[in-house]
Amino acid sequence: MTTASDVAGFLAFAEKERQYSPNTVKAYARDLTRFTAFCDAHYGGAWSWDTVDRTGVRGFLGELQRNGLAKRSASRALSSVRSFYRYLQLNERVAVNIAKAARVPRIDKRLPTPLGRQQMDDLFTLAEARASGDEFLALRDLAMLELFYATGMRLAELSGLDLDRLDLLGDQVKVVGKGRKERIVPLGSKASRALRRYLPLRDRAVEEQGGGVRQPAVFVGGHGRRLTARTVQRRMQALFAAVGEDEASVHSLRHTFATHLLDAGADLRAVQELLGHASLSTTQIYTHTSVERLKRVYRDAHPRA
């Protein structure tokens, strides 16, 4: 087998057997393409996966950082190489996972930056004013904003959401997260109301533009087809910019969802389940943000702070 066929086999395994998300498979493909190109240049001539040594892996990481790749991206690339070598071991293509001993680049921890209550109020005031009529895009954008804040969904989870996962009678939604894991998340009355206003216009767009093809996506464009994650991101970014929050992102809404729940006394494990985190330690970062906000309130409000 060639190096290219090994990589192709691994990507098929990740997609079909492990059921990783399309974004994860794309990231694996990108990282392994870089790794293969590096090995071509580093070793020269003929080489194979079992002739790659630890020096080569360290050299690969060094090249990524010299080329300006962020530490977090370099760490993900190393994780891709490790996963690939585990696959090669399972299929008896190599005897040792040489990437296992490589050190992960140290990543500076960055606390999430949630939006405050007033900032969210400003966002919803703007979105609701624009959606006061029956304009399709405005109603759709309000529904997306409500859903992001009500559920803490990731961008890929919202753009990939299908109609059969919405339960507007029970005010809940079934979210398909990382690794195809499913979780049930409450919607909240305002998100449900925004969706009920939007969905008839969505159905009309699909009927008029879809050419009779069944479209399962909740969020579509005027052409009646599923919105891409990039389009969702761009529409939300336009709302942020309109209220002066240019630094905010779609992921800020996920941070905001978690932080506001914890600020109001929600149980950490419940927030973990709502976010779809596999590990409680991932959710705990939001407790740091919440404590920092409490300290700021204390300093501003207490007479002897």
The averaged pLDDT comes out at: 87
Order of helices and strands: HHHHHHHEEEHHHHHH
Shape: globular
CATH topology of the largest domain: hpI Integrase, Chain A
**Treating each run of at least 4 consecutive H or I residues as one helix, how many helices?**
13
- Largest sheet, if any? 3 strands, antiparallel
CATH architectural grouping of the largest domain: Orthogonal Bundle
Radius of gyration: 23 Å
Specify the structural class. Answer: mainly alpha
What is the CA-CA span between the terminal residues? 68 Å
Show unreliable segments: none
Strand order of the largest sheet: 1-2-3
**How many strands?**
3
CATH domain class of the largest domain? Mainly Alpha
Q: Helical residue percent?
A: 55-70%
List the helices and strands and how they pair.
Elements: H1 3-17, H2 22-43, H3 54-66, H4 71-90, H5 117-130, H6 136-151, H7 155-159, E1 166-167, E2 172-176, E3 182-186, H8 189-209, H9 229-242, H10 250-263, H11 268-275, H12 280-283, H13 285-301
Antiparallel strand pairs: 1-2, 2-3
Helix pairs in contact: 1-2, 2-3, 2-4, 3-4, 5-6, 6-8, 6-10, 10-13
Question: How does this structure look, described?
Answer:
- The chain is mainly α.
- It folds into 2 domains: 3-90, DNA polymerase, domain 1 (Orthogonal Bundle); 117-301, Orthogonal Bundle (hpI Integrase, Chain A).
- Helices cover 60% and strands 4% of the residues.
- It contains 13 helices and 3 strands; from the N terminus they run αααααααβββαααααα.
- The protein has helices at residues 3-17, 22-43, 54-66, 71-90, 117-130, 136-151, 155-159, 189-209, 229-242, 250-263, 268-275, 280-283, 285-301; strands spanning 166-167, 172-176, 182-186.
- A 3-stranded antiparallel β-sheet has the order 1-2-3, with no helix packed on it.
- β2 and β3 (182-186) form a beta hairpin.
- α1 (3-17) runs antiparallel to α2, α3 packs antiparallel against α4 (71-90) and α10 (250-263) crosses α13.
- The longest helix has 22 residues, at 22-43.
- The protein is globular and about 65 Å long.
- 30% of the residues are buried.
- The model has no long low-confidence stretch (mean pLDDT 87).
